[in-house]
């Protein structure tokens, strides 16, 4: 199977007004194109509701390619929900839409509307239909019967988050695509996800680290599972989480090292207690979506109850580092 990514990207750009052409197609080209369309989409010979059987009893193979890269406009993970917009491309063959380019002035490919052909209605099944929207655009047909159907997709996917290592945590969100209208004996779903390095800059807080695709089974139907690995950018929480946490540790240690009869010891302890009490206010909203309690929350909680815990933790860390 040849992948024609350049014509596809040009087609998508043309649909969104990113590319223009000032040249007017010749009358001969339009004539060949109209004749070809009349032949391919004749209602008496082509049924848009009938899947391509390609002259055999074998199922129709459909390849799904979610594209994460230059075409991705948004991706963010917040409150246990992954919000993203991307482009998904479906590819399959239909021998009923083949033609000889020599019979049509060397015309090797055309574009048409999704309503004029059969196409697989692939859905994201692990989210609500209200959180999943598509925008169908032009279908790309090759003379050998190969079809590419690309469309922008906007989705909001639930994602279980483990914030144990917050703010240096990594998360894995999964998206499941499936074709529910047909069984495996009629249409079989395959394909893989494609990620460009530019997708790592689409979110200010998260960096995409990997994209894996695998095939599963849902209600005796083949599904395509896409796993997106994301790592939180710790630099974004340096002033709001990391530095206050380090400051609270230093203040606790200073309280132990100051003389017992020092008048500033009580003042230092009050300031540190106030700091420790304010920091959990930022972490509390995270606990609603986390499957585990963050280590920093456990540390601050123990520090409020037993300040000796801080000294033992720091001493253990220093000893381990020396060894």
UniProtKB/TrEMBL annotation:
Domain Neurotransmitter-gated ion-channel ligand-binding stretches: 38-193
Keyword Signal: yes
Main location (coarse class): membrane
Places the protein is found: Membrane
Gene Ontology CC: membrane
Superkingdom to which the source organism belongs: Eukaryota
GO molecular function: extracellular ligand-gated monoatomic ion channel activity; transmembrane signaling receptor activity
Signal peptide: 1-21
Keyword match Hydrolase: no
Listed Gene3D superfamilies: Neurotransmitter-gated ion-channel ligand-binding domain (2.70.170.10)
Membrane topology per record: Multi-pass membrane protein
InterPro entries in the record: Neur_chan_lig-bd, Neur_chan_lig-bd_sf, Neur_channel, Neurotransmitter_ion_chnl_CS
UniProt keywords, alphabetically: Ion channel, Ion transport, Membrane, Receptor, Signal, Transport
PANTHER family: NEUROTRANSMITTER GATED ION CHANNEL (PTHR18945)
Protein's name according to its UniProt entry: Putative acetylcholine receptor
Species annotation: Ixodes ricinus (Common tick)
